[in-house]
Model the fold of this input.
Amino acid sequence: MQLPLIKYPTLGIISLLLLSINIQPVFSNSSPTLILAQNTNSQAATDALNQGLEAIQLGKVEAAITAFRQAIKLDPKLAAAHYNLGLALRQSGKLQPAADAFYQATQADSQFALAFANLGGALLEGNNLKLAQDYLNKALQLNPNLGFAHYNMGLLREQEKNWSSAIASFQKARTYSQNAPEPAYHLGICYLQQGKIEQAKVAFNQAIKINPKYAEAYYNLGTILFNQGQLNEGLAAFRKSAAANSSYANAYYGAGLVFMQLKQYKEAIQVFQYAHDLYNIQGNLQWVKNSQQLLQQLENRKK
Done:
């Protein structure tokens, strides 16, 4: 009996665990670090930059992009404008233009650690690991205490399956970014890969303590408990995962496996059907098939 796997392309299945790996090169519970104008003699460029910052605060991302580009036109050496443009472009899902903007920020200011770190994160997201590593190293040379640069380096090492190095980076990220749940979460993933189950449980619980709505953390905790035979505890974790994100199909699938083990077949059918429908909506065809097979098994039991 197997649970679905949400993963980086290079990560594999651990025993019967579903690894729900939420890859996010920036922290989910923090706003982008916008930068104010510095070292410019152009009042017009400063005004355009400030317009962009105001637009971001109002949620008007496209207007912000236009304003930041106007600031750059007025002062091409204004590093803050390039950097903030990169943040806005990334927020709107334009990864390559965002990387280009962060690069221009580093060219305008060679000591701009945040720009190097965000450039590394964008390249990591684009799966350009070698160049991402170079820019993350540069960011950490400039600012060894930059938590999300350590976090992004951890993601990079995780993708390389260098678990020990990834753990070291995530631990540093936790030290310097104590309010971010992602480093603890990914520590749990790495500990699982090393077979350190109890340490993984601790790490997932730490992530949940920081973010009580961390669906993936509850889910992975549930899979550990399920595989340890702690069915009621696992079911509770799956329920919390679904409560944190009602569209998270894996939580319902996991709950269905628990109900099957408990021989509560009516409940199992209900949650497997819900998981099946969500997988179908989300285009996850392999797990549409898997949930359909389990539904068929349960239907046959009723005959």
Observations:
- The two ends are 22 Å apart (CA to CA).
- Confidence is low (pLDDT under 50) at residues 1-19.
- Residues 265-282 form the longest helix (18 residues).
- The chain has 15 helices and no strands.
